[in-house]
Design goal:
Radius of gyration: 31 Å
Order of helices and strands: HEEEEHEEEHEEEEEEEEEEEEHHE
Largest sheet: 7 strands, parallel
Number of strands: 20
Structural class: alpha/beta
Number of helices: 5
Length: 321
């Protein structure tokens, strides 16, 4: 090979080396860019998931005593621990007596942040009692038959309700917090060594003696399916997705919500408010006594158990930002 040919090969080789170096550099820059973008996406996804989880955490906590002191339009800000390197904040903004906007913000040390917010509903005892159209509320179109006699001056006032729920919610959310009952049983106070056993399924408190161990205890009980109350006594809030029979002289005080039909028989007595979406049968010598104070007292007593922040269904999550 002549000297000129060797020079040409050298030049071509150098050009190929430079081209390969340029390609390698381009691939390195591209990889670094992809890595940076990937890390950014991972950071955003982490923050987004943390904000969503914090929102659900706040919602699950439900009602707290401080909520009654927040006036409409005010916001309560609560810093929360999220994870190492992440700072979280929950904001409760009151829109009305029972309506709230719940917002969760999460940020990291780099200044990146994410948030979620949701419209939720938390019942208020006063508003719920006032919303019942009568002592006995039945579903629109349901027949209400009063089969027996009732005590004078306490004849049930029958109103109508359009859809199951305590406000803009369905029975399912509240039932999930109270679904503890078997198909049939006899309620009554349960105390051991002078202490009320609140986790006994059929312990519904003692409405006849406020000084008894279970005198201040109110049940928050429910069932997915039909229920038969075979005598006994109790006070509280009951939510049943099915038909209910109250018999054998049972005495219940508070709020009873039934998605099906309610049959009160055998000299039984209900005091407070009753909602029976499938209609009502009231037997001989059985009585339903309207008492807003009894209903309100029961609803107030179980707020810590049934006061879940229920998402308002027409409004999905708002965000993230």
């Amino acid at each position: 090979m002549s000297r000129g040919d060797r020079g040409a090969v050298l030049v071509v080789t150098l050009l190929l080396v430079l081209a390969l170096l340029g390609l390698a550099h381009a691939l390195l820059v591209s990889a670094e860019a992809a890595y940076t973008v990937s890390r950014a996406h991972a950071r955003v996804a982490t923050l987004d998931a943390a904000a969503s989880g914090l929102l659900e955490r706040g919602r699950a906590e439900g009602w707290s005593p401080w909520m009654d002191a927040i006036v409409v339009g005010q916001t309560r800000v609560e810093p929360r621990d999220v994870a190492p390197g992440l700072a979280g904040v929950i904001r409760w903004r009151r829109l009305g007596a029972e309506g709230w906007i719940l917002r969760a913000d999460v940020a990291d040390g780099s200044g990146s942040a994410a948030w979620w917010r949701r419209l939720v509903w938390i019942y208020h005892p006063d508003r719920r009692v006032a919303s019942f159209p009568g002592v006995v509320s039945v579903g629109s179109g349901a027949m209400s038959s009063i089969l027996g006699s009732v005590v004078p001056d306490v004849v049930p006032t029958v109103g109508t309700v359009a859809a199951p729920g305590l406000g803009p919610s369905d029975l399912g959310h509240l039932l999930a917090a109270s679904d503890t009952l078997e198909e049939a049983g006899t309620p009554g106070p349960v105390a051991v060594a002078g202490v009320c056993v609140v986790d006994a399924p059929w312990n519904w408190g003692e409405p006849r003696d406020s000084t008894a161990p279970c005198g201040a205890y109110f049940a928050a009980a429910g069932r997915s399916g039909d229920l038969t109350v075979e005598g006994g006594v109790g006070q509280g809030v009951w939510i049943v997705d099915g038909d209910v029979v109250v018999q054998d002289g049972a005495e219940l005080s508070g709020v009873l919500i039934v998605s099906g039909r309610l049959d009160v028989r055998g000299g039984s007595t209900l005091r407070g408010r009753v909602v029976a979406y499938g209609g009502l049968d009231l037997g001989v010598a059985s009585v339903i006594v309207g008492s807003p104070s009894e209903a309100e007292r029961a609803l107030a007593a179980v707020r810590d158990r049934l006061g879940v922040a229920v998402p308002v269904h027409p409004a999905r999550r708002l965000g993230p930002g």
